Amino acid sequence: MFEPFTLKDIAKALGLSTSTVSRALRDTHEISPETKKLVLDYAQKINYRPNPIALSLKERRSKSIGVSLSEVANQYFAQVVNGIESIAYDRGYHVIITQTHEFYEREKVNIQHLASRSVDGLLVSLSAETTDTSYLQNLHQRGLPMVFFDRVTDQINTHQIIANNEKGSFEATEYLINQGCRRIAHLTSSDHLSISVERLNGYKQALAKHNLPFNEAYIKYCEHGGMFQQETEVAIKELMNLKEKPDGIFVASDRLSIGALAVFKELKIKVPQEMVIAGFCNSDVLDLMCPTLTSVRQPAFEMGQIATDMLLNLIESKYPVHDFEKKILDTSLWVRNS
Amino acid sequence: MFEPFTLKDIAKALGLSTSTVSRALRDTHEISPETKKLVLDYAQKINYRPNPIALSLKERRSKSIGVSLSEVANQYFAQVVNGIESIAYDRGYHVIITQTHEFYEREKVNIQHLASRSVDGLLVSLSAETTDTSYLQNLHQRGLPMVFFDRVTDQINTHQIIANNEKGSFEATEYLINQGCRRIAHLTSSDHLSISVERLNGYKQALAKHNLPFNEAYIKYCEHGGMFQQETEVAIKELMNLKEKPDGIFVASDRLSIGALAVFKELKIKVPQEMVIAGFCNSDVLDLMCPTLTSVRQPAFEMGQIATDMLLNLIESKYPVHDFEKKILDTSLWVRNS
DNA sequence: AATTATTGTGCAATCGTTCCCGGCACAACC
DNA sequence: GGTTGTGCCGGGAACGATTGCACAATAATT
């Protein structure tokens, strides 16, 4: 059995009380230098570490934060996680990552598990399936600090951090227009996600600016964000079966971009000759391998950092916070059409 | 403040003792049906959840396992994590993922943090930098269950699960030979990783079988597994500056494959006309985008599942386990040379 | 020399839960 | 009627760490 050393072990070994040992290890000025040295040396020798669980119980906080996101295999989220860890780590917090794989049920179970006292706060990016956030509202009402990133909700009054999805989408769509595309489709995730709404808006604005008609038939939603390749396949095939086939497509995420490229390949549709693609994408690999995909890059690492900083400030705030912020970070357009 | 309900709250509300409430919620046969119903109903009403931290302290286990790997942005590891979660989740365990980014110091800090009583066991894939495993040996000696996967060490006597790296490498190298390559280079991670040794062996065996000479100059190690693109760049450029340039290259990992492709692109070396590539790769994207990369696929998801199953069995075993297993799973060769 | 500070240390309560032990009723037995 | 049994419940210790309070011994003060 794995039994780490405790204060009691040290106390017994040195013939002291646990309180003396405890104080020797921190208070320092209440304890005689000799005793202090004795304790510190011994603790060093046996490599003593305070039991974080006992501390959590006592302090009523766990010094850990929970993260809920769709999947770490997604480059965007992997980069966000790195940002989260970089800050949490520095400030002495553990990070517990949970994946929803875009399922509402999974998200709910994960978050409730995290919340039942094992984390001090939550970083949440909603799943594609989620429409009911009442369980989150419940936790928030009861005082669990949370910050939303990427896929946010206005039903809960707290900090939010997102990319400038409208502007990013506008630029990507305008790029397609400038490339000569006139029938631009939009492949996106489920329609109740905040990012989908915002990205659709940017797309519409670009069309409007250039006097192009908005065609509902060109908008294709994937309820599970392309988690099932079949979703993407059906969507693309429907687009390609239209009388007026699109000549460009604005894709709303990493996963959908990958999925769409796969379908175009299968259909032997040449990119970018027959179809120009632009989309949100943070994948280095895709970027490297596909020189024809103009991409909207989100500052993922930075988003993770800022979200974590906001959350930890909420957690460590001595007074209840009522003033919440919605932070919007600019994207950048990486034009690739060689 | 976020203050979940406790047993005491229920006891006070119903005029009972905490012990009675506790028993009503589990023991069940020592408590009268009426009291039981009363308690259960009330607990349901306020959505009571036992405090996992208090439980952990009492039970001296946390029902969570720690994972140490290089980075989740790597598709192989992302798939392993999914496998780990699928099993841990079913058996009621939390999963805490930590990333080393191939740094020894980071690995050590992460694992010691996990070990200081907050996890019941460890799943470890060593970082590229790690040579000294004494801190792990220390934990293992003191009884912390651990299972190694992918990058293992024989210095600690416990379960291991790996892919059949030798066979996979042999097949990939032989594939290159069959494609007509005669000067086959090998780009790999740091030389002290178990996978590097095994993969080099498979490579050598294939050369030997086909009576090709082994040339030390064709072997290039990247001490940080290609975490810094510069490593890969230097390695490839050195290879291409040799008098007898290689005509094929066997690459040992996802990240190195991506890195290498980027360098070949930069150098305007055509793949596969001037350079045939084969390598270990679990990236769907790379696979999709690069139709010329023949890849050795590892059963990553399954590896995660098996490792977790082994670990949980160790953790839950009533008797000390001395009989350890080294499980080797077959890889599969995905030939792509269109 | 007696009183008051000062210093160093131990006791005990606390966090939320479980579980051993013991106690109170009431019924059944000799 | 006294003993034993049984069903139901409360008291209290334990898990490991921190911390207010008490108290001893020594030093400083009048």
What does this structure look like?
Chains A, B: Keywords: DNA-binding, Transcription, Transcription regulation. Chains A, B: Residues 5-59 form the HTH lacI-type domain. Chains A, B: This is LacI family transcriptional regulator. The structure is a homodimer of 338-residue chains. In chain A, 45% of the residues lie in helices and 16% in strands. The mean pLDDT of chain A is 92. Chain A has helices at residues 7-14, 18-25, 33-46, 52-59, 75-90, 104-115, 134-141, 165-178, 194-209, 229-240, 254-266, 284-289, 300-316; strands at 64-69, 94-99, 121-124, 146-149, 160-163, 184-188, 219-221, 248-251, 276-280, 293-297, 326-329, 332-334. The radius of gyration of chain A is 25 Å and the shape is elongated. With 338 residues, chain A is an alpha/beta fold. A 6-stranded parallel beta sheet of chain A has the order 2-1-3-4-5-11, sandwiched between helices. A 6-stranded mixed beta sheet of chain A has the order 7-6-8-9-10-12, sandwiched between helices. The first copy, chain A, contains 13 helices and 12 strands. In chain A, strand 9 (276-280), helix 12 (284-289) and strand 10 (293-297) form a beta-alpha-beta unit. Chain A folds into 3 domains: 7-50, Orthogonal Bundle (434 Repressor (Amino-terminal Domain)), CATH 1.10.260.40; 58-162 and 300-329, Rossmann fold (3-Layer(aba) Sandwich), CATH 3.40.50; 165-297, 3-Layer(aba) Sandwich (Rossmann fold), CATH 3.40.50. The termini of chain A are far apart. In chain A, helix 5 runs parallel beside helix 13 (300-316) and helix 10 crosses helix 11 (254-266). Chains A and B meet through helix 4, helix 5, strand 2, helix 11 and helix 12 of A and helix 4, helix 5, strand 2, helix 6 and helix 11 of B. The first copy, chain A, binds a DNA duplex (30 and 30 nucleotides) through residues 6-8, 16-20, 22-23, 26-27, 30-32, 35, 50-51, 53-60, 117.
